[in-house]
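User: Can you recover a sequence for this backbone? Please restate the input before giving your answer.

Assistant: Of course. Working from this structure:
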């Protein structure tokens, strides 16, 4: 197959063209045109992915659980998955804390720019602080309460309730394992058919992925620039060192931690792994949403990496809801950066608090764009840093959100590959070879 017909290259071309067109539109003052005539195609692409996310998780997870046919096996895979997710999140936060303490990006922001940023994003800060206050007032076991829905249909009506959908699917799958096989068979066959339908729909949606990515990138650039390209450069000049610290941490975790785990626990060729997950990474970058990317993530795991359907249908939906390595790393860097900028020192105890709080917060962070900002407010206040400090980073948050979502999705695929390999359910595809003439 020619390189230009491969999906990940088409998405990459769409991404680059969207970036260039967004810069041109910002320079020429075309943001209104982009908002009205270009951005809707990106919204349609994201909506299509969100449309099939709930039925995909529900059907694939029920089929995956029932295919295990053994509750002990399910508990083993579940325990292994959650343990690796929590461990990689802790490593990601540690990397972020080391980098921000070594580079000290908060000491490079000029006082006048700090004042301008706080004034420009004052309204956004108040809105995020209100959401954080609602989250903070919940009891210590509210996370468990939130997992169990009171209504199946209300849980399935909102993609933010994906953890509840996962619970419903697991609950139903376990129930099907416990009832007589002749009673369970038609129900399993129904969800198997739904799963096959959704997978086919994913393939159809991905045909317009290059167009959707183009529109999303163009809209992102013009939204940040607001018809003033100079504003982008000013933001990058003021917050470039901070952004560099976040991106450096994400790169180290994505290209260091994950490959090391793959080599030690799965023995998967890194070239095969990263070329196989490229479409999911590019969609994650453009949508900034692990949840919206989930259909593509599952397709890459099964078709490109050879992860079995029963493993991918369990590990990946769970990862999209509780595994937020990139978000946790970013929160650690952002919290210390804000403290440095405001002239507040954070001792070892405070940074250990950040580590623990960020691990717990990453489990409850919704798989939607910028949800990590709300949890960051809670982390800041846990170590005595004013939550109003998030105004310092909101200007570049959208760009960094795109980057950290790539790490989140890469982590999900890494863990799925490791679990499949350790369970003997990984069948790597045979590399294409050129026929001799």
């Amino acid at each position: 197959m020619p390189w230009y017909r491969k999906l990940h290259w088409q998405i990459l071309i769409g991404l680059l063209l969207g970036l260039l067109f967004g810069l041109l539109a910002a320079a020429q003052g075309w943001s209104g045109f982009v908002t009205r005539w270009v951005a809707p195609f990106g919204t349609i692409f994201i909506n299509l992915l969100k449309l099939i996310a709930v039925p995909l998780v529900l059907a694939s997870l029920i089929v995956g659980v029932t295919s295990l046919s053994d509750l002990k096996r399910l508990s083993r895979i579940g325990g292994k998955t959650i343990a690796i997710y929590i461990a990689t999140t802790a490593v990601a936060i540690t990397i972020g804390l080391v980098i921000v303490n070594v580079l000290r990006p908060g000491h490079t922001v000029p006082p006048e720019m700090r004042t301008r940023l706080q004034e420009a994003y004052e309204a956004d800060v108040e809105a995020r602080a209100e959401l954080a206050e609602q989250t903070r007032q919940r009891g210590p076991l509210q996370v468990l309460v939130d997992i169990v829905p009171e209504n199946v249909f209300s849980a399935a009506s909102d993609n933010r309730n994906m953890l509840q959908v996962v619970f419903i699917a697991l609950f139903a799958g376990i129930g099907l394992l416990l009832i007589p096989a002749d009673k369970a068979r038609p129900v399993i066959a129904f969800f198997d058919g739904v799963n096959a339908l959704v997978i086919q729909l994913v393939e159809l949606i991905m045909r317009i992925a290059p167009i959707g990515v183009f529109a999303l990138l163009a809209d992102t650039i013009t939204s940040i620039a607001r018809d003033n390209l100079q504003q982008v450069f000013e933001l990058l000049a003021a917050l470039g060192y901070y952004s560099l610290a976040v991106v450096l941490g994400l790169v180290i975790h994505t290209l260091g931690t994950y490959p090391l785990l793959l080599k030690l626990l799965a023995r998967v060729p890194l070239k095969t792994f990263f070329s196989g997950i490229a479409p999911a990474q590019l969609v994650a970058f453009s949508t900034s949403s692990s949840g919206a990317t989930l259909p593509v993530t599952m397709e890459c795991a099964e078709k490109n990496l050879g992860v079995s359907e029963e493993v991918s249908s369990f590990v990946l939906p769970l990862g999209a809801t509780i595994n937020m390595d990139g978000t946790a790393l970013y929160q650690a860097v952002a919290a210390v950066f804000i403290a440095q900028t405001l002239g507040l020192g954070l001792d070892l105890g405070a940074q250990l608090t950040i580590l623990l709080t960020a691990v717990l917060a990453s489990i409850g962070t919704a798989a939607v764009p910028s949800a990590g900002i709300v949890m960051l407010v809670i982390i800041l206040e846990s170590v005595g840093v004013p939550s109003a400090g998030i105004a310092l980073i909101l200007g570049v948050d959208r760009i960094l959100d795109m980057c950290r979502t790539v790490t989140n999705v890469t982590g999900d695929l890494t863990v799925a590959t490791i679990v499949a390999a350790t369970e003997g359910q990984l069948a790597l595809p045979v590399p294409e070879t050129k026929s001799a003439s």
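That completes the design. Residues 3-422 form a domain with the Proton glutamate symport protein fold (CATH 1.10.3860.10).
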